[in-house]
Amino acid sequence: MPKIGNRVLLVSMLFLTFGGITMYLAFANGNVSIVSPITNIYPMVTIAVAKFRLKEQLTIRQYAGLAMLLAAVPLFSF
After folding, report:
1. Are 77 and 33 in contact, with CB atoms under 8 Å apart?
2. Which of 2, 15, 28, 70 has its CA at 20 to 30 Å from residue 61's CA atom?
3. Could you give the CA distance from residue 48 to residue 35 in angstroms, rounded to a whole number?
4. 38 backbone dihedrals φ, ψ, rounded to 5°
5. In 3-state terms, what secondary structure has residue 59?
6. Alpha-carbon distance 74 to 71, whole Å?
7. Which of 42, 36, 39, 41 is nearest to 12 (CA)?
8. What is the tens place of the pLDDT at every residue in 29-63?
């Protein structure tokens, strides 16, 4: 594996660890109905990296999916 791959893997695992810890802390101290939808929008980070870093073009369907995802978060938070 290239040396840069190890660093990316380390950063990814750190984010996964801190994300899991903060999610469970939020579950313990907050409303699950609000915390869960927000923590489940993690695909947006992947899409942002693909769009800006990898210069991928999104289709109309993908934009529609993103819009529905963003609209769903407040709906699930009630």
Report:
1. yes
2. 15
3. 21
4. -70, -40
5. coil
6. 6
7. 42
8. 877 777 777 777 777 777 888 888 888 898 999 88
46 half-sphere exposure, CB direction, 13 A CA radius:
7
For the chain, domain boundaries: 1-30, 31-78
CB atoms within 10 A of CB 35: 19
What is the CA 60 to chain-centroid distance, rounded? 20
> Two tokens at 31?
């409303």
Q: What share of the chain is helix, strand, coil (3-state, %, to 5)?
A: 80, 0, 20
- 1 token code pair: 């594996």
DSSP, residue by residue, 41-69: TTHHHHHHHHHHTS-PPPPHHHHHHHHHH
Task: Share the mean pLDDT of the chain.
Answer: 80
The encoded tokens of residue 10 equal 């380390």
Question: Are the beta carbons of 69 and 39 closer than 8 angstroms?
Answer: no
